[in-house]
Amino acid sequence: MRYFAYILALLAGSALSFEGAIYGELGKTIGQLETSFYNFFMGSIIMGLLWIFFGKGKLSYAVEAPKWSLLGGVLGVVYLTSIVISVPFVGVGLTMVAVIIGQLIMSMIIEHYGWLGSKKTRINKEKIFAVISMIIALILIY
């Protein structure tokens, strides 16, 4: 199952690069905020249909969930809109490397403190070296 998760994550990363390129271009045509709206509108329709036919959870329990756990939608808007704005200026590659660096740094902080229900994993020199290497890669790609 672990290897399947790695493959799934690689596919998700590939899809995000395609999405960034597609929506960067669409943003030039219809506008950046309009592109983000289009993404979430179409995604809501598709997810609504999947939920109707395959959903097994209880959406009504969202009011009982910790309030911080409902921020995912807001963060998704920030993420996608940032990509739509960034890609036309710096390209898909630089945007995605910068996104990954941001993810690495914030993931390390979240896990270091065990925030948001995550398992505590201390920041070590290897992780810091990995982030520095990614920053160097960003500079070299540019």
From TrEMBL:
The chain crosses the membrane at residues 36-56, 68-90, 96-116. Pfam families: DMT_YdcZ. It comes from the Bacteria. The keyword Transmembrane helix applies. Keywords: Membrane, Transmembrane, Transmembrane helix. InterPro entries: YdcZ. One of its GO terms (cellular component) is plasma membrane. This is DMT family transporter. It comes from Bacillus inaquosorum. The lineage of its organism: Bacteria, Bacillati, Bacillota, Bacilli, Bacillales.
